């Protein structure tokens, strides 16, 4: 038996069609799985699914009902039946006696078929007798396994206070139904055939508060073109519009005026301003009571002196009901009441259906002020507004172009892209080419960016357009940074500062990067001094954020790791006025490197994940490989090679990409190859960095730590003379710069080279020096890595006791970081050294520790060359041990050896 009734209504809960087949619920997978398990426990359950209108509680309840194997009975409460005793249960069990809840409960249980689920929609309107009966049935008849799934809309003032108090008390389970996030809103849109870029998905999420029903309604009601526009004005869904119109009509004229004024003023409007705009006299409290009871106004968290619209959809609906003329009149008056100049001007924009040169000029001037403080996001909105109110077509085009430039500066590439068709359609100007080059740059398109910037510089007249010329120079500064060309960076920064003049936004941005160019050309001390002066001058704001991030970069380069951490963490937030997501991404990428080097690998992966989410939201791709470099290293060192391969795929770059993308991608592959004991792979990954490139600064110590990895790989492959020749210039440069960590890494590589040549004293001296250098720095990964190389070298030189000590220290360091690949290697080395090995009585066919290590690696499928690299032996020595193993075990082939060590494998020659 089933009673469908009305399964939802606009403004209360979701409208559901129980005849439709069940569909997967977006963003509810874990919640559904947990509730299904709850309903299968065999005990009585009262599951209360409550939430604001449109959150999806009724849809969720029906999803559970459809997936239930047993009978389902449905009922829907109605406001006008709430005072009728037993009206809700009468829908489920016609004729059920209602003498008292206890007797009715007994009769209900007698009629209940096994495994039945009762679905109650709009339970906030349920009658008390029905709900009390269900509670009594649970308490007095636990063996009946009564299962109830009830939905309730929170904040509905029409519901009885007694019912609202009773529902949570009788519920055995009341899970929170979370709103959808931006990614889930995108998924919802895709299911309706609408593609939303992340910025638009976030805009729709904010407008609907993440509630699926109104989001789905707007996606269906609005033209598809809406979703590709720049900052479209989103209305309320038709269902919300109808309810708001009804609520406004039911209010007294004064309360309606109060609600309309609140909608015009927006969030956190002072009550005095609302009363003034609505031209109301007397005390506001009765009006506030009436407007809030009607669901048109909400008290702001700041207290009784501030009010807000309940949500953006209600605000949009009220503004629509006002009509264009009345709304514009109120907006013009409201612009005089608000203190925030941005808010005031945007009210005037909303009230201006035709061009207004005076307002456009004020918008442009304010945009310049905001840009001076680095508030690029706000500046972009003001410039876009100014373009709409401008008559002059050429000036309008310039404003749109500048708005795109500001959006890219703020790191909002997707919103910038929405304006690109307008920019590309206008006549070519130096500004247009510079902006399009800037966009190509943050997308990582080096060739396009270079071409656009060259064209912009070729056609600009520096005498007539010094500001545009300075902007082009500043974009070249960023381009030089991405090419990692320190000389070019400083050159273009100085040009930008000269053309723009001191303390202008363009000059400050150039200054914020110039110090990195100094560092990349070896003038690190000058770079540090530059940033100390600049951050002291700026002190706060988005420009300070840029300079602080760059100072952190230099601190990391110069081994001031703790200072670098503070700077990166300080420059990560984007809550500054217009704080840049682009700068935040750089800060997160380098913070992840700090966390990797100091052994905080869980934190490093968390930082990378957060940054990759931000990258997906913003469309800034140039930082991707830098972020994934750290992730690849951690996963590889932890032996998580499936994740490693996925990361390497995402970090792949090509010859046309920027150097700042290619280098970390190459380093990521080298890390992975080293973790797999693939020395050939290390050389292949790093070979491009060995090619002479006068225009880049990748050889400067501390910038990109690749040189020691390359040298170690050469030694492990027996290419000793090449390793010696390679190390010399890098050792000299590290000594000249006084770079501690790079000297330590290169000295360890030199120690390994001495060891490979059999010079025990020189090898020990080099490794001891390397450990002394690194001991004063919080670089736990490097310390463990140097100890491992030292121990491996000592073991080969038959200094087993000393090797045991050093390898144990390496093992402890790697184990603390979760570097399982190296923990296993340390264990193999320690076992092969045999110092702490319990030695059985030797027999003629017993394998030595070294033979056991060779056996295990060959059985895993490694070639002699790979085994040699792993155990730091020559290929001939590996073959010698392998021959002895075959003789002792009475086998003839690698396949037999593999089958013997892996019994599940078939044996074959």
Automatic annotation (TrEMBL):
- PROSITE patterns from the xrefs? HTH_LUXR_1, HTH_LUXR_2
GO MF terms held by the record: DNA binding
Region described as Disordered: 1-21
Q: Which GO terms describe its biological process?
A: regulation of DNA-templated transcription
Q: Which domain of life is it from?
A: Bacteria
Check the record and name the InterPro entries matching this protein: AAA_16 (IPR041664), P-loop_NTPase (IPR027417), Sig_transdc_resp-reg_C-effctor (IPR016032), TPR-like_helical_dom_sf (IPR011990), Tscrpt_reg_LuxR_C (IPR000792), WH-like_DNA-bd_sf (IPR036388)
Residue ranges of every copy of the HTH luxR-type domain listed in the record: 840-905
Name under which the protein is recorded: Helix-turn-helix transcriptional regulator
Species of origin reads Saccharopolyspora karakumensis
